[in-house]
Amino acid sequence: MKKGVMRPGHVQIRVLDMDAAVKHYTDLLGLIETDRDDQGRVYLKAWTEVDKFSVVLREADEPGCDFMAFKVVDEPFLQQLEKDLVEHGVDIENIPEGELKDCGRRVRFKAPSGHTFELYADKQYTGKWGITEVNPEAWPRNLDGMKVVRFDHCLMYGPELAATYDLFVNVLGFYLAEQVLDGEGTRIAQFLSLSTKAHDIAFIHHEEMGKFHHASFYLETWEDVLRAADLISMTDTSIDIGPTRHGLTHGKTIYFFDPSGNRNEVFCGGDYNYPDHKPVTWQAEQLGKAIFYHDRVLNERFLTVLT
């Protein structure tokens, strides 16, 4: 297993109305706006994150996800991954330093599922927001909304799960933490991790390429998830499902939509993993319980509403 791709770094989300989107992601989720650029993009971060941004909003004619990026340990490892991707038959595009504000060069590629991903090594280090790195307080006093702790993962819908697995595991160094198998033993959902987290990226089989299911943000406690549910109702935000528990990962969760129709998740808890753990397997006939552990019934909207 390669050691060098560290964590999810950022996600660029397309929104229809920038003012409404910024209000949603700052006032409701509690992200902090850190910058804007001459393209009109808005940069946001959660308060515990040490780099300048983890979410970029871009105004567009349709919602969805432009790309998700992962941070690697250093420039030499990024150069090695470039070579590995090319040897694997993946077309790469070099995005120059500064195209995203205060971010180093990025290596962009498309997975067999149709989703665009990036790798980068450098981004401006700003430290945690609102607290010092010497004798820090427990949390900043002036956080808004849900007070999300970090950008955690994305769930993508698309085809070619086996080829996508091969790319992420054998080239990028992820490992399989959890999966759903159909009656023939074919993997129809895969949850891939770089760390001890339940997952850093997940894919579910879908015939249409490159579809975005949700971006997820971490909260500390079940009480925080319940408070998030209250805020969703207090702001008349469109809700998808929850609060509830997943069978997959066992995280406690709630799903809702931004004003453009992009799905968000906030969650707490969930399983931990190490690379020597065997993958947890769910059978497709138990998919209702796997996704919504309490209801044990699939929410059709959860499976079909994508951007």
TrEMBL record:
Coiled coil: none annotated. SUPFAM superfamilies: Glyoxalase/Bleomycin resistance protein/Dihydroxybiphenyl dioxygenase. The keyword Metal-binding applies. Its EC number is 1.13.11.2. Pfam families: Diox-like_N, Glyoxalase. Residues 7-122, 150-269 form the VOC domain. Homotetramer. This is Metapyrocatechase. It comes from Marinobacter orientalis. The lineage of its organism: Bacteria, Pseudomonadati, Pseudomonadota, Gammaproteobacteria, Pseudomonadales.
